[in-house]
Write a structure and sequence with these properties.
The complex is a heterotrimer. By secondary structure, chain A is mainly alpha-helical. Chain A has 14 helices and 4 strands. In chain A, strands 1-4 form a two-stranded antiparallel sheet. In chain A, strands 2-3 form a two-stranded antiparallel ribbon. Chain B is mainly alpha-helical. Chain B is built from 12 helices and 2 strands. The N and C termini of chain B lie far apart (55 Å). Chain C folds into 2 domains: 178 residues, P-loop containing nucleotide triphosphate hydrolases (Rossmann fold); 76 residues, no CATH class. In chain C, strand 1 and strand 2 form a beta hairpin. In chain C, helix 5 packs parallel to helix 8 and helix 7 crosses helix 8. Classes of the chains: A mainly alpha, B mainly alpha, C alpha/beta. Chains in contact: A-B, A-C, B-C. Chains B and C meet through loops of B and loops of C.
Amino acid sequence: MFYRENGQFKTSYRADLALFPVAQDRWAMLALAAVAFVAVPLLASDYSFRAIFIPFLILSLAAIGLNILVGYCGQISLGTGAFMAVGAYAAYNLQVRIDGMPLLLALIGGGLCAMVFGVLFGIPSLRIRGLYLAVATLAAQFFVDWFTNRVKWVTNDSSSGSVSVRALQMFGFEFSTPTQKYLLVLTLVVIFGLLARNLVRGAIGREWMAMRDMDVAAAVIGIRPVYAKLTAFAVSSFIVGVAGALWGFVHLGAWEPSAFGIDKSLQLLFMIIIGGLGSIAGSFFGAAFVVLLPLFLNYVPHWLGLAISTATASHLEHMIFGALIVFFLIVEPHGLARLWATGRQKLRLWPFPH
Amino acid sequence: MGFFLETVFGGLMAGMLYALVALGFVLIFKASGVFNFAQGAMVLFAALAMARFAEWFPRWLGFDSAVLANLLAFVAAALCMVVVAWLVERLALRRLVNQEGITLLMATLGIANVLDSAGQLLFGSATYKIDIGMPKDPMIVLDKVFDGGLLLSKEDMFAAVLAAALVTTLTLFFQKTATGRALRAVADDHQAAQSIGIPLARIWVIVWSIGGFVALVAGVIWGSKLGVQYSISLVALKAFPVVILGGLTSVPGAILGGLIIGVGEKVSEIYLGPYLGGGIENWFAYVLALAVLLVRPQGLFGDRIIDRV
Amino acid sequence: MNARAMDLPPQAAPQGDDAPPPARRIGESILEVKNISLAFGGVKALSDISFDVREHEVRAIIGPNGAGKSSMLNCINGVYTPQQGSITFRGQTFRHMNSRQVAEMGVARTFQNLALFKGMSVLDNIMSGRNLKMKSGLLAQALRWGPAEREELAHREFVERIIDFLEIQAWRKTPVGRLPYGLQKRVDLGRALAMEPQVLLLDEPMAGMNVEEKQDMCRFVLDVNDEFGTTIVLIEHDMGVVMDISDRVVVLDYGRKIGDGTPDEVRADPEVIRAYLGTTH
């Protein structure tokens, strides 16, 4: 009753194409924005910024990037960690080797390098499909793992193999407190989220989805498979690269190559499957799930007053995480986004039964 | 030249072991259409079971003979894998019939998590020994032909022979028996197979048990060589390129792929490695598989996917 | 399988009698296939097929299942590459068709097994047919500024007209996978129409439909042919439909051409009757 589109008539196609055509959605988004930009900085603790909000936002961005490739264009990629690494190391090198490089340019530069890398490793997708492609993308993952470990130039000849970034500076302003870092990341994620949303709703988004659903028919109606696949890899890697740079610069501060290993790739893949393939909102849901669940599981034994060793707790946590993934896939294979959409459908009728 | 032959031989041995793990993948994929990311975790689980049972049985049952301990442990571990297969089918696979490939892949990743942790919870997370009496001393052959002869590892040869025997048995099983035929039907189309009365549940338990058995043999061999520890589950990561090189649905492909990758890795590490700073073993297999896929997108012997519009 | 046995309403004489004579409407040969042979491994799908299609006409391809009709269309569209033979479109001859090129030249297609994009809505499916004509770059689309937005709106308007024409307005936002078969067929047609084709290849557009739905579909096809002058190449099993609406017919059997001419000529051809139409006993 409260959430319905009755009475909301669109009198122009422009109105119908708006980002949030339903008025209630617009209100909800504004409220969310108010909470995110105003309430959270005022109320949240430093710890929650570092442990929850910042990783959640950065991983959401990476998940959006991966979702574009896997969810919208149907190309399975298991090498996302590698693209994040390229973004992070490229941004690092830009910052370290060029004096006075503003943060934003370093981040974008990282994204661009990741994009080139992504297109390069996307070329096999023109020949290889499905699970074969998935495993082939692992080549990118392991190659980058080795490259960042062995090639000293990448880490600026660091003896330990790890790199750390200086303060985050842009136009004279320094992002030092967790709140400032949070707002920086939030702004970037919102901007990229909107850009991504526009892309997937537009012509290129339709080309990607056409390639995913039926590539033979797509070719017949004039869609160029090469262009569609390579742009998917390009856009996806750009976003993932920026996310990787943010992960290294803002969240970690200092990192080693292992921070972007295959575990990260699998974690991101979990996020978009749990969150929902082919859904920008789903990327956020999935990231929240993967960030919050381990924290939650960490606290449960504490609340229940059980005394178990950290090793056992860690094993149990992994087990429950794995079991929940399987459970989730059984219950809703289309992810949290579908659950959310179903919920909204029901909300249209509530409190009436039908 | 002698050194080159040694390298090749070592590669063939390692390749045989990769092929063994890859075989587990191919079997499960052929019969249930699932790419089993949990194969590595299964190897770890099986190896842990074997190692610990071999330790515990003498203690519990009060005997001394190592041979008996190993034998009982092997049987017990095999039974464990059957139970695992049954649980996986009952709790997960049954409810995921006909889901998309990527969903099933993710489910096996979840199962991998569970198996990894459950194994370590049940059996402990230290490093354990498996000793099935494999000869550890090296063997020198052809010392008339080559100066000093070729140095070969008896243990590796033993393992390779074992692996080859298992691979042959399984190939015959798949190609020649009625159950094998049913398994191939199931891999093609779950629903169609069900509709002609193939008992999907039972087939899947059988297949995953076989996969578990293969994992057990692989786990015993690797564990005997390297000791049983968490990193054994990473062996599976090496098996992926073998599987896709050979073709996801081909048993001979898995064998050939394993040998190619085994030799390729060793040779490239020795001869290319110094130019690139070493450590290229980690990605060589993958890049090799990728290169082959570019020429043959379905692997050496995989089935071509033909779209009918 | 006798045309008289079909329970169609008392038909007006074939289009040609009432309307102005076809000779005025139908133009020169626009599409020609010459000596096309196609084989998959050992199976010969097409053997030395040659026929032509004249501009503005409705050309039917008929024949038993497995005769190679869909394969023929697939060759024209560039999905399959024939081992022998060539295809001439508007005077340009090709040994091998490139799908994108074919689409750009103005040939559109519907599919026997629908090949719709199941994950997208009806609107998006038909909009994907306009992608050929959309020129905005990636960045412009991401920012949705000026020209990109105007282009999207312009194409949306065009697609809405097609939706009106096909009478599927109520389902425009529904994911295509959820629609009943008959409506999906209309969406398939809509997507092909969105490409503003000069030649429309229809692969069994009326399969699985009841009499009313068939009449609707016939009406759409004929309207397209009338209003826009689109040349229609139609694969169809329903002989009543074929005899009614087509100007000329090609008959295939086991990959060979066994008949080519007007519906009346083909209907009387003894070899066609033996192979496909059947006789009353």
